[in-house]
Description:
Helix 3 (106-117) packs across helix 9 and helix 6 (200-208) packs across helix 7. The protein folds into 2 domains: 2-108 and 282-296, Nucleotidyltransferase, domain 5 (2-Layer Sandwich); 123-277, Nucleotidyltransferase, domain 5. The relative contact order is 0.15. 35% of the residues lie in helices and 20% in strands. By secondary structure, it is of the alpha/beta class. Strand 5 and strand 6 (76-77) form a beta hairpin. The protein is globular, with a radius of gyration of 19 Å.
Amino acid sequence: MRIGIDLGGTKTEGVVLDYDGRVLLRKRVATQQSAGYHAIMNTIVQLVRDLEVEVDAACSIGIGTPGAISAVTGAMKNSNTTCLNGQPLLEDLQALLDRPLRIANDANCFALSEALDGAGKGHNVVFGVIMGTGVGGGVVFNRQLHQGRQHISGEWGHNILELDGPGCYCGQNGCVETLISGPGLAADFYRHGGSDTLVASDVVALATQGDALAEAAMQRFFDRFGRALAMVVNILDPDVIVLGGGLSNVERLYSEGRERVAHYVFNDEFITPVLKNVHGDSSGVRGAAQLWCSSEF
Length: 297
């Protein structure tokens, strides 16, 4: 059996998968991010132990994290859970749990899950997209996760889309993440005269009700989505694109958003399927468990 852990900013989820990939057990706990790095480690360790007690078995462990492991130092980097950055999370957890672990970026785990038995099943090259609080992505070739030499494969959210765009926590301006994430959509609506009390889902709902300001924000959103994703298609030319995160529920992305990608992509036609995920919020934690293959046991 395989344990997957999805380390989120507020909640940490764990699942146990059987040999065939079925979820046997699921549990969520508070991450305790404000208590710092060691508290987060203890949360993960205790969650693993609780799951193993309930299934009465020692399991392989895969962990999906915000950020990634540096190929140079072995420490965490690029995490918006900033207390993880610079910390030897993999090494420390392996010592505490007394076994080898696998860690990957949470968007990579999403992409792997959807490629193996989700919306991307049966396709050789899958690009998985996360559009929620942030924007991330992952690449899967022939059912194998491609993390890249520097463990940043798929990080399209930190390509610069507009030089004069909003500041990003990474230190750049106008990153894709600042413009087509949930907070990015809400902030754009506010910058163009909308209320600063609304979140992305409110803007989407207002647009469907005919609100002119909200609809204008959605049109800018679709255009930015099209320009940003066309860059990925031009480089990777995947067999399928699978959308995840809260904004994947915006149905207009699969029609108007896709049309904008087609407008910007370097080809006379755009035949790549753009699909909604199958596993929803469970994709990330399932993908973490699937960092280990059943054949490895």
